[in-house]
């Protein structure tokens, strides 16, 4: 049984998929995926404790395992902590359990967190350092036979959030450009990722400034036509602001926070400027973004209309 957690969704997904591929290299397992936010816990329980219809062994991936830290994220109404503990202590030997959490927080105090540590192999994936990301960028272009020197790789890094999902998406766009890469070409293609713009959109969402948010939201989509990119960036920034706020509450200095989060001091300054929001409010915003993203992927939203409606509905509810 494995428990993997990381603040970076891309690294978390990549590590999880690699683990599943390693276990299931002979395709002898049925793979089932669930979310503790979206899915009925009784369904998860049944899937773990019953045998596969196809007589295969099972890999059950359970995402959004927020029960291991103190952050107040609302799980599905059917979630039962005692039932979870019983399930872990009496797990079906024919079922491989993988729990994941898109957060870097794992409690040292909660009883259930201690139980997870005892019964599962717990792995934390740290954010990649500046040097590692720059090396990743240069290697990415080298594999595509595109010439990119370290100066340009550093420029790309400085104009993107420290989120490997966002970075990877943008590298795929840049590597397919027909023109030679220069700072100007890169700047023109990464304008939407400049910190001031993204923090301004994020702040409007956090502060429930509907008029300001809609203005920036529509400007962004008009110029970039990339709703997934926008949702990912807002999510990354709201999470970042939350983490800075948590560290500030522990009386950490700005330089200490920059070191802990492996972030540029200017990003810390921008995050600290948002000092009126509560951690619970930020967690709620992150959950809303997750649900919008998942609903689009599942085809539940008409991309041109409903995401905007969901954003506005959330901000009106909190005013």
UniProtKB/TrEMBL annotation:
Location of the DNA polymerase III delta N-terminal domain: 5-120
Keywords: DNA replication, DNA-directed DNA polymerase, Nucleotidyltransferase, Transferase
Gene3D superfamilies named among the record's database cross-references: 1.20.272.10, P-loop containing nucleotide triphosphate hydrolases
InterPro entries with a match to the protein in the record: DNA_pol3_delta-like_C, DNA_pol3_delta_N, DNA_polIII_delta, P-loop_NTPase
Entry keyword Nucleotidyltransferase: yes
A single GO cellular-component term on record: DNA polymerase III complex
Highest taxon in the source lineage: Bacteria
Entry protein name: DNA polymerase III subunit delta
Pfam families: DNA_pol3_delta, DNA_pol3_delta_C
A molecular-function term among this protein's GO annotations: DNA binding
GO terms, biological process: DNA-templated DNA replication
Species this protein is from: Mesoplasma syrphidae
Domain DNA polymerase III delta subunit-like C-terminal: 195-305
């Amino acid at each position: 049984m494995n428990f993997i957690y990381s603040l970076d969704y891309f690294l978390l997904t990549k590590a999880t998929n690699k683990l599943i591929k390693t276990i299931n290299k002979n395709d002898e397992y049925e793979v089932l995926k669930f979310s503790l936010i979206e899915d009925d816990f009784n369904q998860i329980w049944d899937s773990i404790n019953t045998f596969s219809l196809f007589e295969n062994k099972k890999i059950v991936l359970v995402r959004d395992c927020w029960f291991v830290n103190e952050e107040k994220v609302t799980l599905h109404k059917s979630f039962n902590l005692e039932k979870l503990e019983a399930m872990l202590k009496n797990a079906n030997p024919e079922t491989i359990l993988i729990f994941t959490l898109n957060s870097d927080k794992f409690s040292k105090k909660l009883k259930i967190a201690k139980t997870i540590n005892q019964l599962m192999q717990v792995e934390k994936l740290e954010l990649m350092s500046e040097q590692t990301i720059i090396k990743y960028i240069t290697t990415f272009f080298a594999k595509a036979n595109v010439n990119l020197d370290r100066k340009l790789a550093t420029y790309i890094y400085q104009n993107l959030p420290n989120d490997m999902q966002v970075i990877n998406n943008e590298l795929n766009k840049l590597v397919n450009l027909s023109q030679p890469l220069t700072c100007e070409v890169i700047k023109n293609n990464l304008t939407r990722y400049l910190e001031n713009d993204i923090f301004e959109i994020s702040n409007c969402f956090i502060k429930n400034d509907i008029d300001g948010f809609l203005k920036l939201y529509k400007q962004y989509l008009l110029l970039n036509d990339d709703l997934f990119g926008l949702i990912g960036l807002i999510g990354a920034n709201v999470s970042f602001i939350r983490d800075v706020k948590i560290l500030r509450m522990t009386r950490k200095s700005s330089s200490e926070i920059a070191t802990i989060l492996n972030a540029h001091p200017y990003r810390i300054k921008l995050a600290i400027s948002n000092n009126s929001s509560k951690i619970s409010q930020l967690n709620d915003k992150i959950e809303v973004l997750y649900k919008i993203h998942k609903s689009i992927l599942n085809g539940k939203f008409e991309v041109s209309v409903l995401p905007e409606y969901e954003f506005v509905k959330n901000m009106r509810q909190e005013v």
